[in-house]
């Protein structure tokens, strides 16, 4: 059996068959991001990647940054203690960057 609960500082506690692991907020966010990416890859591999539902999430923080190593622009979205970073091909974030500056 799998149980999960949130921790006061934004982390998560996962219990699987009696074994427990606690992840702080930064590691929990990275873990969730990796799992979502792997699930998306598997769905695409199986040809089952057409969304049938979902949820609307509103970020409480947003910014556009430039990766120091690659020079590519990334969109950073903050959802409480969770942070999601979206990479796009060069030039694709120019309009997003301008929209954020206007806010």
In words, what does this structure look like?
The structure is a single chain. With about 100 residues, the chain is an alpha+beta fold. The chain has two helices and six strands. It has helices at about 25-45, 95-100; strands at about 1-5, 10-15, 20-25, 60-65, 75-80, 80-85. The strands form two sheets. It has a three-stranded antiparallel beta sheet. Strand 4 and strand 5 (about 75-80) form a beta hairpin. The N and C termini lie far apart (about 45 Å). The model has no long low-confidence stretch (mean pLDDT about 80).
Topology:
Blueprint: E1 2-6, E2 12-16, E3 19-23, H1 25-46, E4 61-66, E5 73-79, E6 82-87, H2 94-102
Antiparallel strand pairs: 1-2, 2-3, 4-5, 5-6
Key terms for this structure?
33% strand; 3-stranded antiparallel sheet; alpha+beta; 103 residues
User: What topology, given as strand order, has the largest sheet?
Assistant: 1-2-3
Residue share in helix: 25-40%
Q: What fraction strand?
A: 25-35%
Shape: globular
Total beta strand runs: 6
Radius of gyration: 17 Å
User: What is the N-to-C succession of helices and strands?
Assistant: EEEHEEEH
How would you sum up the major sheet? 3 strands, antiparallel
Which regions are unreliable across 5 or more consecutive residues at pLDDT < 50?
Answer: none
Tally of DSSP helical segments: 2
Structural class by sheet pairing and helices: alpha+beta
Mean pLDDT: 78
Measure the end-to-end span. 46 Å
Please provide a brief summary of the model.
The protein has helices at 25-46, 94-102; strands spanning 2-6, 12-16, 19-23, 61-66, 73-79, 82-87. It is α+β, with helices and mostly antiparallel strands and 103 residues long. β2 (12-16) and β3 (19-23) form a beta hairpin.
């Amino acid at each position: 059996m799998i149980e999960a609960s949130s921790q006061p500082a934004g982390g998560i506690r996962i219990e699987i068959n009696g074994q427990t692991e606690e992840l702080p907020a930064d590691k929990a966010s990275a873990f969730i991001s990796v799992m979502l990416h792997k699930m998306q890859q598997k769905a695409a591999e199986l040809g089952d990647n057409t969304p049938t539902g979902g949820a609307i999430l509103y970020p409480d923080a947003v910014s556009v940054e430039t990766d120091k190593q690659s020079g590519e622009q990334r969109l950073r979205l903050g959802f409480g203690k969770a942070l999601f970073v979206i990479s796009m091909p060069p030039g694709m974030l120019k309009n997003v960057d301008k929209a954020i500056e206007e806010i």
